[in-house]
Amino acid sequence: MSEAQVAAQRAKVASAAMAKASTELKNKALFAMAAALRKEAALICAENAVDCAEARKAGTKDSLIDRLFLDEGRIEGMASALESLASLDDPAGKTLEQRTLENGLLIRKVSVPLGVVAMVYEARPNVTADAAGICVKSGNACVLRGGSMAVHSNLAIAQVLRVAIESVGLPADAVVAIESTDRAETDTLLRLRGLVDVLIPRGGAGLIQHCVEHAIVPVIETGVGNCHVYVHESADFAMARKIILNAKTQRTGVCNACESVLVDASIAQEFLPGLLLDLAQANVLIHGDEVVRAAVQATVAEGHAELSQFFVAATEEDWGREYLALEISIRVIEGGVDEAVSHINRYGTNHSECIVASNKEAIAVFQQGVDAAAVYANASTRFTDGGEFGLGAEIGISTQKLHVRGPFALEALTSTKYLVNGTGQVRE
């Protein structure tokens, strides 16, 4: 029997106890988990250092190592996220609807945990704590299959959390981490219908596509992020530059970072030089069209020779690329908001998109027309996050339309059932 199957069986047993656990007990577990992370921070950092060293040795790019890296500050963030979950309403056991039929039957629709949640994810070890916490709070058990790059970090975090969960009287197997780095274990997990109730992949496009194509268990897709910022002709230039710089550089290796910029042709000549210099100063490589190239050349001629080393001609592939690095594509468009919407719906990934504008009609057209989980007006795409949205820690950002869309947090890990109470009624 494979490790994945054994892990799912253990989680299945634990899920029965988790479904019956009180809100008080689940919250007690979350506080214990947070305290354990703080207590064992040195151990977790030591294991993480092994992962980071191996990643650097393998030539992993800096943006991905940043996603992998843990220090006491990031561990504190993980612990605080768990505690914040305790302050949120319990998503399970809620009466969502209630009515009494003419025949006297009382029908209640209540929220219930999904059961066993399997997570397949890549380099970010904080996902281990986030997923575990969300599953505990919502009354689920989880099977965690992290990427090989973070294996030492993930296993250390999972073990710390398991001990904490058990210390309050809940089953340690509410959190089960697969230790093997053999990819065959992932493929086994995808096929465990009857044991795994839902599978959530979180990572690059290749991982997500593999899970979607090969799973026979239900899959909730957390998509990649080719996120755009569209600068409308009515935009405040200073605001637009600030938003783009934040969305691109505040943290590059995340799915809600800006990867593409669209600029109205009517303002390109005036707007682009300042933006290009901002990006170059931040060491961002610009993949631009011919209009952007001309703006670069004009700015270089004005005495900014350093800009030339931060520009390359964009290709068709650049419009749909998720860089996850200090790189960005910039395109100048002639057709205003309608073309921006069309471009984004063609090349985007249904994640997070932004318009910078003062024209309310343009904002309305953009927000209505763009097909994405989050559509911003005059704010950075970096806010697409469960914590930032006030939902607590999240497992990922769902870019699909069924079951849940956007930050994948507590309520998304519940289903419903009907409770029907009668006094002897029979159907005629």
How would you characterize the overall build of this protein?
By secondary structure, the protein is an alpha/beta fold. The protein is built from 14 helices and 16 strands. The protein has helices at 3-20, 23-39, 41-57, 62-68, 72-86, 126-137, 151-167, 183-190, 205-214, 237-249, 265-281, 290-301, 336-347, 360-369; strands spanning 95-100, 106-113, 116-121, 141-145, 175-177, 198-202, 227-231, 258-264, 285-288, 311-313, 327-333, 352-356, 374-377, 396-398, 406-408, 414-421. The protein has a seven-stranded parallel β-sheet, sandwiched between helices. It has a four-stranded parallel β-sheet with strand order 5-4-3-6, sandwiched between helices. It has a three-stranded antiparallel β-sheet with strand order 1-2-16, with no helix packed on it. The longest helix has 18 residues, at 3-20. It is globular and about 80 Å long.
Which class of secondary structure composition applies to the elements?
Answer: alpha/beta
Radius of gyration, in angstroms, nearest whole number: 24 Å
Order of helices and strands: HHHHHEEEHEHEHEHEHEHEHEEHEHEEEE
pLDDT under 50 segments (min length 5)? none
In the CATH hierarchy, what is the architecture of the largest domain at level 2?
Answer: 3-Layer(aba) Sandwich
CATH topology-level fold name of the largest domain: Aldehyde Dehydrogenase, Chain A, domain 1
Total of domains: 2
Quaternary structure annotation: single chain
Report the principal-axis shape. Answer: globular
Let me know the number of strands. Answer: 16
* Mean pLDDT metric: 94
User: CATH homologous superfamily name of the largest domain?
Assistant: Aldehyde Dehydrogenase, Chain A, domain 1
Biggest sheet strand line-up: 10-9-11-8-7-12-13
| Helix run count | 14
* CATH class placement of the largest domain: Alpha Beta
Question: What percentage of the residues does DSSP assign to strands (E)?
Answer: 15-25%
